[in-house]
Design goal:
Blueprint (H helix, E strand, L loop, with lengths): L5 H20 L1 H5 L13 E11 L3 E2 L1 H4 L8 E9 L6 E7 L7 E6 L5 E7 L4 E7 L6 E2 L2 E2 L2 E8 L4 E6 L2 E7 L14 E4 L2 E3 L2 E3 L3 E10 L5 H8 L6 E2 L11 E9 L5 E8 L10 E8 L10 E4 L27 E9 L5 E8 L15 E4 L2 E8 L7 E3 L4 E4 L4 E7 L5 E3 L2 E2 L1 E10 L2 E12 L9 E2 L5 E7 L10 E2 L12 E2 L2 E2 L1 E2 L6 E6 L3 E7 L7 E6 L8 E7 L2 E7 L5 E6 L10 E2 L13 E9 L2 E9 L8 E8 L5 E8 L10 E5 L5 E5 L17 E5 L1 H4 L2 E2 L1
Parallel strand pairs: 22-37
Antiparallel strand pairs: 1-16, 2-13, 3-10, 3-16, 4-5, 4-13, 5-6, 6-7, 8-9, 10-11, 11-12, 14-15, 17-52, 18-19, 19-20, 20-21, 22-23, 23-34, 24-25, 25-26, 25-33, 26-27, 27-28, 28-29, 29-30, 31-32, 34-35, 36-39, 38-39, 39-40, 40-41, 42-43, 43-44, 44-45, 46-47, 47-48, 48-49, 49-53, 50-51, 51-52
């Protein structure tokens, strides 16, 4: 055992104080989740241990626990740091030491997964519960102190795992096992499990604090006492003001007045892309990204209720999807030269996916030089109507106005009266998804599945604007067809758009699947055009544009060949070079979105850009932040990089911003968002802040 420095002692005292306060002043709350066996005030601390340093051999505490918790509900609280994260490591184990597979343990895997397991060899019981992306390994190159817990509740027949303030998994089992049900139980070990006479799954690091109770504490209490604010800060958190449990696709941008905006998809039917109910969430910070406003939903539909559903994660049901809500997806933030802020997103009608969107129809009709959105009326097969000026719906067969209008929020009125529709909701009964009308009436919009008039089933680009730096937002508008009347809109590269310095040109990166499309405006957003670059092998995907010098742009993009591609324009985006590839980054063939920004100060005496990306062929993991120094010939010297966490830890979509004080803000998906095994994870979109010196850790 070795002593810890003052900081660890302070952390332990703080955790101990919180636990003691909760036990003394919230005993009634604590015991609300216990087995009926216990009465109020009967939460017993039966064991505690602090600052125990382990090297993989474990410490036997059988004498301390034998006979005290075998037939009880239990709560085990553990605060720990790992010195070495490789392999599966048990934080605590209770076992039949002579058997190979009769034991209970709480474990962490080298990829950040937290789990617990109850096994009994003779009955072949194996109650395993775990969740990926539950803990951190390191932050700013130092081990992270994680606080986790497991709760066993015999009355409810559940095992529940908590990590750093989040309930990561709760599993109800038919064959619930108390520890006393493990045949021949004769061993309790901190930092391992005694199996067949030897300690297995040896933990390497420090158990900073362990507390064991013979009580099943309730959820509110466990979230409070496991909350860990060392690294995991969330701008958007499960069941916040958005009423969503799941978030993906981060976007950050720092405005000219010093306010920092953050946006993300608020996904209600799990983390699925399509089909889903997805709204666009937004929050802002006025203190260099330290604290954030209550989230709002500037882009949102109401055809499905915004409710914090727990979407199933087991392999058989995790792929269940919503029948299809109208969707805003993939946010992008930009500030125009007049300081108006735009928040953009792809918008798709109910039930339409990106793959299923019509490719040969923009959804608009050109009439007298103007584009008007086409509509199909219920019971008709053709698109015989358009939305003309002031929202008036015209019958194209007669070129006459009808009694219908469409408001700026896409809602339909008849003779000035709003048309209503039933709002839908979702629940799960016996593992089956049920969609039902919840009794609430909402305004009918042209994007809803049961609308009287519906748009073409393709994708559009919507944006809302703010004239007060993101406090309030306008009703949305649609960007007219930039690829012509007979092609669908390109898809956005989520993150940020830019205004380049030479022409004041607004630039919005987007893609079609075969082309890079730079949507641009030279009149501050009054009109929109596009530059299209056909790419090799018919691939294109999400991109970000950065201005490395005045008028010199580079577009960095995801590909289908395991590399990040980049193109250069020396004329503010009028023409683009052939793509080249970064030789120091590898991705799986399906690729991943990235983030790149220009830094406002010199680094090592040179202009600099900062890039965030996963760097692994084996999935979306191994997040890295790279600093590139700009050379006179417009090439980039990628001089430094920083590892966000261990290489095995998940890292997918990300967004960088330079904060007003010169530090770097990063919001990222701390999980492998491609993996089917990591669907529907809560609180995996953390936000962290770095000094530039933090990012100069490793020199290339």
């Amino acid at each position: 055992m070795k002593s810890k420095p003052f900081l660890s002692v302070f952390k332990f005292l703080l955790v101990a104080f919180v636990i003691l306060s909760l036990l003394l002043f919230n005993m009634q709350t604590v015991n609300a989740g216990t087995s009926k066996k216990h009465s109020k005030g009967d939460a017993h601390l039966i064991y505690s241990q602090q600052n125990l340093h382990l090297t993989g051999k474990g410490v036997d505490i059988t004498k301390n626990l034998k006979g005290k918790m075998e037939d009880q509900d239990f709560t085990v609280l553990i605060q720990f740091e790992q010195d070495d994260h490789k392999g599966n490591q048990a934080l605590i184990g209770a076992s039949n030491s002579k058997s190979q597979n009769s034991y209970f343990d709480v474990f962490v895997r080298e990829n950040g997964e937290l789990g617990a397991e109850v096994r009994n060899e003779t009955t072949q019981t194996n109650n395993l519960m775990s969740r990926p992306a539950s803990v951190w390994g390191k932050f700013k190159s130092k081990p992270v102190s994680n606080t986790v817990a497991v709760v066993g509740n015999a009355h409810q027949q559940t095992y529940t795992l908590y990590a750093n303030g989040t309930k990561v998994v709760e599993q109800k089992v038919d064959d619930y096992k108390k520890l006393g049900d493990i045949e021949g139980l004769d061993s309790f070990v901190i930092g391992g499990v005694k199996r067949s006479g030897k300690v297995a799954f040896g933990f390497k690091g420090t158990i900073e604090n362990m507390q064991i109770y013979d009580t099943a504490m309730n959820e509110n209490t466990m979230i409070k006492i496991t909350t860990n604010d060392v690294t995991q800060k969330f701008i958007f958190r499960a069941n916040d003001a958005t009423h969503s449990n799941y978030f993906r696709i981060p976007a950050l941008n720092t405005l000219s007045n010093g306010r920092v905006l953050a946006s993300a998809d608020a996904r209600y039917a799990g983390t699925h892309d399509f089909t889903n109910k997805i709204n666009t969430a937004l929050s802002y910070s006025d203190d260099n990204g330290k604290t954030w406003s209550k989230p709002q939903l500037p882009l949102a539909f109401e055809d499905f209720a915004a409710e914090p559903l727990d979407w199933p994660r087991d392999p058989e049901t995790s792929k269940i999807q919503l029948s299809g809500g109208a969707t805003y997806i993939d946010p992008m933030i930009l500030e125009k030269s007049d300081h108006q802020v735009l928040l953009l997103a792809d918008v798709l009608p109910a039930g339409v996916s990106s793959a299923g969107a019509k490719r040969d129809d923009s959804g608009f009709k050109k009439v007298n030089g103007h584009y008007y959105m086409k509509l199909q009326k219920q019971g008709e097969s053709a698109y015989n109507y358009t939305i003309r000026d002031k929202g008036v719906v015209y019958d194209e067969r007669t070129n006459k106005p009808t009694e219908y209008t469409v408001d700026d929020d896409f809602s339909i009125k008849q003779s000035g009266q709003p048309l209503k529709t039933d709002q839908l909701a979702v629940k799960f009964e016996n593992g089956e998804k049920v969609e039902y009308k919840n009794g609430k009436k909402v305004n009918m919009t042209v994007f809803y599945k049961d609308a009287l008039f519906k748009v073409v089933p393709t994708n559009f680009i919507a944006y809302t604007s703010s004239n007060d730096h993101g406090t309030h937002w306008s009703t949305p508008k649609l960007i007219p067809p930039v690829l012509g009347e007979n092609r669908n809109a390109p898809f956005l590269g989520p993150g940020r758009g830019i205004v380049e310095s030479q022409k004041g040109r607004i630039l919005i990166p987007s893609y079609t699947g075969k082309e890079f499309v730079s949507i641009y405006s030279d009149d501050n957003g009054k009109t929109w055009n596009s530059k299209v670059v056909r790419l090799p092998s018919n691939w294109s995907a999400e991109a970000q544009i950065v201005e490395i010098k005045p008028g010199v742009l580079q577009a960095y993009m995801r590909t289908n060949n395991g590399k990040i591609a980049y193109m250069t324009s020396t004329d503010s985006g009028d023409h683009w070079s052939s793509p080249q590839y970064l030789d120091f980054v590898s991705n799986p063939n399906y690729g991943t979105e990235l983030s790149i920004i220009k830094y406002s100060h010199k680094i090592d005496g040179k202009d600099a850009v900062i890039l965030s990306t996963p760097n692994s062929k084996d999935g979306r993991r191994n997040g890295q932040i790279w600093i590139g120094l700009v050379n006179d010939d417009n090439s980039i010297d990628w001089r430094y990089h920083h590892d966000v966490d261990y290489a095995e830890y998940g890292y997918a979509y990300s967004s960088l911003t330079e904060l007003p004080n010169g530090k770097i803000g990063l919001m990222f998906e701390k999980f492998d968002s491609w993996s089917n095994l990591q669907l529907h994870l809560k609180n995996v979109l953390p936000y962290v802040i770095y000094d530039i010196d933090d990012l100069k850790e490793n020199q290339q």
